[in-house]
Amino acid sequence: MRVLSILGARPQFIKAAPVSKALKEDGHQEFMVHTGQHYDYGMSQVFFDELGLPKPDINLGVGSGSHGQQTGQMLIGIEQILEQEKPDWALVYGDTNSTLAGALAAVKLHIPLAHVEAGLRSFNRSMPEEHNRVLTDHCADLLFCPTQTAVDNLAREGITKSVYWVGDTMYDAVLQFGEIARQRSTILQDLGLEPKKYLLATLHRPYNTDDSEKLAEILKAFRECGETVIFPVHPRTRARMNEFGLLNDRQLGSLRLIEPLGYLDMLMLEQNARLILTDSGGMQKEAYFFAVPCITLRPETEWVETVESGWNRLVKAQTRQVVLAISHKTIPNGRHSDIFGNGRAARRIISLLDPR
User: Fold this and answer.
1) Does residue 41 lie within any of the structural domains?
2) What is the pLDDT of residue 63?
3) Which one from 204, 234, 328, 336 is the annotated catalytic residue?
4) Rounded mean pLDDT of the chain?
5) Is the separation of the CB atoms in 85 and 4 below 8 Å?
6) DSSP states of 152-190 as a string?
């Protein structure tokens, strides 16, 4: 079996690592396309290095740009590659512009399409990711869902054929790399941190970063919460902070800005944080995997199971609400369940791609 995998952003590298490993173990061929959506070392290459992903067979080098520019350039490049390689399956992950471009290119060339992390819905159509998810799911021939909720979401849209709850490949990755992070990462020592004595924050979605008032409110909460907040700053977030005049070091208080980190260092910071604050879907799940309480800086989430379990809280981008949520130090009583599978999602995906 020959699979063409289409990746472009750091969460996709994490999701793809267990699948790529399983493909290799079973003797299948994988042709990997990196669209270049995330293109610097801190956001891209370091993840390939740490996760043991094979070097991409081709990097389209699309880089930054508007949604239309990015998606259009990716679509042109991926279509050419699919015509040349003629894979048995095109495999896309998540909800980025790379996902949608890969899906559209494959379906128009009648190449079977499989979507890993299918069925997620925030029900917020103002988010570009929501459109990417919905369109990709309606193009896909095989839909690999991380949770039963995702299966149910697809059923409500009339998609019931070739839909499978396989579990979450990010959980596979955490099980594979969590212990490696504990053995190799020195990030706690490097930053002078003690376990459970700091908060970890990330912020990258346009919903928060492109709105100067929301971004200012969130950063003010980080500064004034009274606890050390470690904040690896996404390049586009840093650009917006600079644009809006929010990079004044004298006003940072207990907020510590650092450069983006590799996967192992992030896993180490996540599992040792007292609390995680984020607008990232992946970090909401990783917080749950590590039994670390999470505050999601959005009015909704695709991962409703984490909220229903009590381990995740939705908080709007308002300083007072964020500070109050941070001060709420109760550890959830909810027992962790296997809502994200058993850590063998990648093996299940391979068995469905090649059912022989």
Assistant:
1) yes
2) 73
3) 204
4) 92
5) yes
6) HHHHHTT--TTEEE---HHHHHHHHHHHHHHHH--HHHH
Res. 168: pLDDT tops 60: yes
Q: Is 117 found in the same domain as 257? A: no
208 within 8 A of 317, measured Cβ to Cβ: yes
Q: Are residues 142 and 18 in the same domain?
A: yes
Question: Using CA atoms, how far apart are residues 346 and 349, in angstroms rounded to an integer?
Answer: 5
Query: Does residue 179 form part of some domain?
Result: no
- Taking residues 217-226, what's their average pLDDT? 94
Chain centroid offset of residue 353 CA: 23
Residue 354 near residue 348, CB atoms below 8 Å: no
pLDDT at 135 over 90: yes
Quick one: 160 and 191 in the same domain? no
Tell whether 198 and 132 lie within a shared domain.
Answer: no
131 is catalytic: no
CATH at 149 = 3.40.50.2000
Eight-state DSSP code of residue 90: E
Are 163 and 269 members of one domain? no
Contact indicator for 273, 256 with CB cutoff of 8 Å: no
Q: Which domain holds residue 313?
A: 187-327
Where helices occur in 52-186 by DSSP H, the ranges are 67-85, 97-108, 128-139, 148-156, 169-184
Residue 63 domain-assigned (yes or no)? yes
pLDDT value of position 51: 84
pLDDT of 39 reads 54
What 3-state class would DSSP assign to 92? strand
Token pair, residue 25, equals 């173990």
